Amino acid sequence: MKTWIPDARNFAYLNWKQVDALPRESTLLVLPTAAIEQHGHHLPLATDTLINNLLLGHALAKLPTNAPVYALPPVHYGKSNEHIGFPGTLSVSASTFMAVLRDLGASVSSAGFKRLVIYNTHGGNTALIDVMARDLRAEFKLRTFALHGSAGAKFDGLTAQERAYGFHAGEVETSYLLATVPELVDKSAYTSNYIADVNKPELLAPEFAPATFAWLTRDIAASGVMGDPRPATAENGARWLDQAATKLAAALDAMLRFPLSPAS
Ligand SMILES: [Zn+2]
After folding, report:
1. 155 near 120, Cβ under 8 Å?
2. 175-208, pLDDT tens digit by residue?
3. Which end of the chain is more exposed for a tag (fewer CB within 10 A), N or C?
């Protein structure tokens, strides 16, 4: 898999003596979680994994060189059963995913580290990460953090419709890949599909509503795309990448400064 993580920030490039020399209280370890799953006819299975690495790599490059932040190797497989039935989707169960995070948290804690952030770029993992961030805090007293996607970056130039419902293989994800790995984007194979309309709010919506219905992609998006990739450009992708990396770097900096112990 390609990587944009700076070599000096790659935890797995260290040897154990170098790890042993890291300051335990201040070092922040980042555990990336993503997915290998269908992304329509035009994007690769690794899209969420590539975007995770891309955004995290650019964020790490923005931190001061002496900031003790290291990226752990990613958990490539996620809970992707919403995309089951599309060839190529490789999903793990909720219990397997949580067990992997629990065991990695145990390893990090047994080495004496105190700060761990789970950085996730796959929506199907989100609920599990919220659970595990708290469980790792409770079981190991790790100061755990959850960080998602583009950390609240605004994506200037997106329509309200795409901003709300372009969340899988749509304009943003396609633009990120056009800016960085255009050889992995099949521009001749775009399909467009929205699963809800921001101008026609329904009582029951698939996402982002007080009342939701559980959805499977094959029920609501035949091509696997939820969003519209057609307006995607490399220029927007590069700009949004920089904006997201800036937000992510600010979040990582806040985690470095966050108190280890509860306020007294
Ligand atoms: Zn995706």
Report:
1. no
2. 999 999 999 999 999 999 998 898 988 888 887 7
3. C
For residue 148, how far is its CA from the centre of ligand 1 (angstroms)? 12
| Cα 225 to middle of ligand 1, angstroms | 9
Rounded to an integer, the average pLDDT of 70-84 is: 98
Tokens 């790890």, residue?
19
- Ligand 1 centre to CA of 176 (Å) is 11
| Cα(139) to centroid(ligand 1), Å | 31
215-225 pLDDT, tens digit each: 999 988 999 99
Alpha carbon distance 178, 174 (integer Å):
6
For residue 60, report the distance from its CA to the centre of ligand 1, in Å.
21
Identity of the residue numbered 236: N
Distances (CA, A) of 18 to 11, 67, 109: 10, 16, 17
204 to each of 78, 130, 167, 210, how far by Cα in Å?
A: 27, 24, 18, 8
State the Cα–Cα distance between residues 215 and 83, nearest whole angstrom. 10
Distance CA 175, CA 42 (A): 12
* CA–CA gap between residue 101 and residue 241 (Å, rounded): 27
